[in-house]
Design goal:
With 407 residues, the chain is mainly alpha-helical. It has a single domain (2-191, 205-406), classed as MFS general substrate transporter like domains (Growth Hormone, Chain: A). It has helices at residues 2-29, 35-40, 47-79, 82-99, 105-118, 121-130, 138-167, 171-190, 215-233, 239-246, 253-282, 284-299, 308-323, 326-336, 342-370, 375-406. The N and C termini lie far apart (44 Å). The model is unreliable at 1-6 (pLDDT under 50).
């Protein structure tokens, strides 16, 4: 009876956090595809300067997130994950709303940096579910939770692009703030956490990796998260500008950019739960490696695209690989990490993702400014191949270590 009640509670949390993730994904992605266009309205910037400011606006959020995430993760292991969810939701409510009032590009960048320091709703949702979900349901649960944020990121750019085209680029920021207020209320009312502080306070002083048997694999997942995020976010600063170039500056560029940004989410939304369940069945390693290979194969042809339609096709296919990457890395860490340090490990993972979200856009801004928008896709393909090499090496080394221990 107690087990049934506990199981019902983690399922109710999953539903509430899925909705919170959906709102966070939709709100945060509402303005991202046309952020460079918003910046271009704040001054008459040359191409190199515009791409630089766009890169700073994207990466500033994630840079501050990378710095503060370990602190929030350590605090979550002491106080619980729900307070961290509330902190993130309320923080983004305030900063997103203020961003809509930005009078110039430097205020915009500053507010984006502050927003990063208080963000982390989706990562804390993963951490809370990882501490509660049964081991045999972890892959499917993480995949399902991913569909929330991805589903939001799917509809967000389309709605944001339509609203921006009709009412201006500031309105989506106000909507983002309002939506995060709704997420705050949902989290406060419906998310329940049965949190017990550590009995031994000295445990919190130990390394978060102290109780992990497969340390190399967990570190590989953290590095993989960084490189995946770098690859997937690299296109963000230039997507609306590249679409504008492909459309020869004709038509509703904001709307088209929103659709192109949203297309990978369609595939991820459909594939993530299935690939998560497949990982539970055949093991996450096979799914992760296959996903990385497929990702590289899909990024490379984007260098040669000549139309928005062909770009959209490959962006859609990349979404399938996305479904096999981040949810699977979350699953591996969930299975390998003791519950007492799960928030700290997930916070390190969030920092790695944030660093990737800094590296990707800044590299893309540099490549696009020096060469051309198309060369960003060659750079991204290289990042995916590096990621593939790290994952294969880590699993081989871990296999040798386990084999030697048994000999």
């Amino acid at each position: 009876m107690l087990k049934t009640k506990k199981r019902a509670q983690w399922q109710r949390n999953l539903y509430a956090l899925w909705l919170g993730n959906f709102i966070t994904g939709a709100g945060s992605s509402m303005s991202l595809p046309f952020l460079p266009l918003f910046i271009s309205e704040m001054g008459n910037f040359p191409k190199w300067e515009l791409t630089l400011y766009a890169g700073l606006a994207f990466s500033g959020t994630f840079l501050s997130q990378a710095i503060v995430s370990p602190f929030w993760g350590k605090l979550a292991d002491k106080t619980g994950r729900k307070p961290m969810l509330m902190r993130a939701a309320i923080g983004m409510t305030i900063t997103a709303t203020l961003t809509g009032f930005s009078p110039n590009v430097w205020i915009l960048i500053m507010l984006r940096v502050i927003q990063g320091g208080f963000s982390g709703y989706i990562n804390n949702a993963y951490a809370l579910m990882a501490s509660e979900v049964p081991a045999d349901k972890s892959g499917q649960t993480m995949g399902t939770l991913t569909t929330g944020s991805v589903g939001g990121m799917l509809v967000g750019p389309v709605i944001g692009g339509y609203i921006a085209g009709m009412l201006g680029y500031r309105i989506p920021f106000y909507l983002f703030g309002g939506m995060m207020l709704i997420a705050s209320i949902i989290t406060l009312v419906y998310v329940k956490e049965d949190f017990h502080p550590l009995a031994d306070p000295k445990y919190a002083q130990r390394s978060a990796f102290a109780g992990i048997k497969h340390v190399r694999v967990v570190w590989a997942m953290i590095l993989s998260s960084m490189l995946i995020q770098a690859a997937t976010t690299s296109i963000n600063p230039i997507i609306s500008l590249f679409v504008k170039e492909l459309m020869h500056n004709q038509g509703n560029i904001a709307m088209a950019s929103g659709i192109i940004a949203a297309l990978p989410g369609i595939a991820t939304l459909l594939a993530a739960p299935r690939l998560g369940a497949l990982g539970d069945h055949i093991g996450p390693r096979k799914v992760l490696i296959a996903g990385l290979i497929f990702c590289a194969v899909m990024f490379l042809p984007m260098f040669f695209v000549q139309s928005v339609t062909s770009l959209g096709v490959f962006r859609f296919l990349v979404g399938i690989s996305d479904a096999a990457l981040l949810p699977i890395t979350q699953t591996v860490m969930t299975l390998a990490t003791p519950k007492e340090s799960i928030s700290r490990i997930f916070s390190y993972n969030q920092s790695a993702q944030a660093i990737g979200s800094v590296i990707g856009p800044m590299l893309a801004a540099g490549v696009a400014g020096i060469l051309d928008y198309r060369y960003v896709f060659l750079m991204t393909t290289g990042l995916v191949l590096i990621n593939l090499g790290i994952v294969i090496w880590a699993y081989r080394m871990d296999y040798k270590m386990v084999r030697n221990a048994h000999n």
